[in-house]
């Protein structure tokens, strides 16, 4: 079991933690504890804003209008139709286990003998992802050095942004191809085909273009791609572990980490996501989009940020007159632990608390 505690300050969080741990009759044994935090700037350890894009959920998100960013409730919550119009698979309990009828019946008529334990719950993916921050910035610096071995900060900032698909502020390259524009009112209202079909702004292989291709999947560009993309969305939350290796707001301020050395400390992202179907959503994004070198017309490119690169792959950056190819891409993010969990609804938690 994983218990996630959140609090507005470390003190409040610790008080809550103590309160829970001191409940001797809880029947729980603490196996392992992890801590995490978020920065006011929402920066992750490489120096980029990691809080921009989330799917809107039909009927729940505001404004209540259907856009290309809207997904069916059943993409995230069990018990509601998903993007295919069918109910996601849900865990059940036999009727006699719920004498007080706290849980709703299994929907439909096929399984009259069971209750829907998953209703209003979701599946939670947790991954502890270590980030090689020094390796990331040293690799990028090495791509920009002149004959004297001096790196070019401006070129570094551009390459890092091409890896992510957004500038450090979160502004997408597709909307602001030349330089960061932190004032952009809506950093998420864009698609790729109209102005960026060939990836000269945001490369095909960039992290955000692979993990959410929007309208740019080559086998069905446009509406078909938007529909396919909407069937592989996840609700993400991240929290950082480990001290930042450099002041994370520096990059946005134009100060690049030129001579960065690793300090031997573990740091990275506690990655969480919610989805109704882990195979079709989280695993698909990780395996079929991030780790596949032949994603969307590419042939030797894995996700430069989170792909399981092994030093042999490439990052292709479309440019005019010739593309740039960055070779021997190392791995910058490695998994240190994690698991798949059911996040039960309040009703299901009450049912568990009532159990004999
Ligand atoms: C240490 C690991 C990771 C880092 C540093 C990272 C960083 C980022 C950043 C900077 C963004 C852009 C800002 C935003 O839209 O919020 C982003 C977006 C995103 N990331 Fe990651 N990420 C990591 C792991 C993952 C993993 C494991 C997945 C899923 C398999 C993932 C899926 C996504 C998705 C779906 C988006 C939004 C794309 C869009 O809608 O445009 N990320 N990530």
TrEMBL record:
<comment type="similarity">
    <text>Belongs to the DyP-type peroxidase family.</text>
</comment>
<keyword id="KW-0560">Oxidoreductase</keyword>
<dbReference type="InterPro" id="IPR011008">
    <property type="entry name" value="Dimeric_a/b-barrel"/>
</dbReference>
<protein>
    <submittedName>
        <fullName>Periplasmic deferrochelatase/peroxidase EfeB</fullName>
    </submittedName>
</protein>
<dbReference type="GO" id="GO:0005829">
    <property type="term" value="C:cytosol"/>
</dbReference>
<keyword id="KW-0479">Metal-binding</keyword>
<dbReference type="GO" id="GO:0004601">
    <property type="term" value="F:peroxidase activity"/>
</dbReference>
<dbReference type="GO" id="GO:0046872">
    <property type="term" value="F:metal ion binding"/>
</dbReference>
<keyword id="KW-0408">Iron</keyword>
<keyword id="KW-0575">Peroxidase</keyword>
<dbReference type="GO" id="GO:0020037">
    <property type="term" value="F:heme binding"/>
</dbReference>
<dbReference type="InterPro" id="IPR006314">
    <property type="entry name" value="Dyp_peroxidase"/>
</dbReference>
């Amino acid at each position: 079991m994983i218990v996630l505690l959140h609090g507005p300050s470390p003190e409040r969080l610790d008080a809550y933690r103590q309160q829970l741990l001191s409940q001797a009759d809880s029947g729980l044994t603490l196996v392992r504890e992890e801590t995490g935090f978020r920065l006011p700037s929402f920066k992750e350890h490489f120096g980029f804003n990691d809080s921009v894009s989330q799917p809107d959920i039909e009927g729940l998100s505001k404004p209540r209008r259907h856009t290309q960013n809207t997904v069916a409730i059943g993409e995230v919550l069990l018990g509601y139709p998903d993007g295919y119009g069918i109910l996601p698979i849900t865990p059940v309990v036999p009727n006699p286990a719920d004498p007080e009828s706290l849980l709703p019946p299994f929907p439909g008529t096929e399984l009259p003998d069971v209750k829907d334990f998953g209703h209003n719950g979701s599946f939670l993916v947790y991954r502890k992802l270590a980030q090689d921050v020094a390796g990331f910035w040293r690799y990028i610096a090495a791509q920009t050095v002149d004959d004297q071995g001096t790196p070019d900060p401006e070129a570094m900032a551009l390459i890092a942004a091409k890896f992510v698909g957004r500038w450090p502020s979160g502004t997408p390259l597709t909307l602001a191809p030349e330089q960061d524009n932190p004032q952009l009112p809506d950093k998420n209202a864009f698609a790729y085909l109209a102005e960026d079909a060939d990836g000269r702004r945001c490369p095909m292989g960039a992290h955000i273009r692979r993990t959410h291709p929007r309208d740019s999947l080559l086998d069905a560009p446009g509406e078909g791609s938007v529909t396919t993309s909407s069937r592989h969305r996840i609700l993400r939350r991240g929290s950082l572990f480990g001290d930042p290796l450099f002041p994370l707001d520096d990059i946005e301020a134009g100060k690049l980490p030129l001579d960065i050395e690793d300090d031997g400390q573990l740091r990275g992202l506690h990655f969480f996501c919610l989805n109704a179907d882990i195979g079709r959503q989280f695993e698909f994004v990780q395996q079929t989009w991030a780790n596949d070198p032949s994603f969307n017309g590419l042939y030797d490119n894995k996700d430069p940020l989170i792909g399981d690169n092994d030093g042999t792959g490439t990052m292709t950056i479309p440019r005019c007159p010739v593309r740039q190819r960055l070779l021997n891409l190392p791995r910058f993010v490695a998994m240190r632990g994690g698991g798949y969990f059911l996040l039960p609804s309040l009703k299901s938690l009450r049912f568990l608390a009532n159990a004999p």
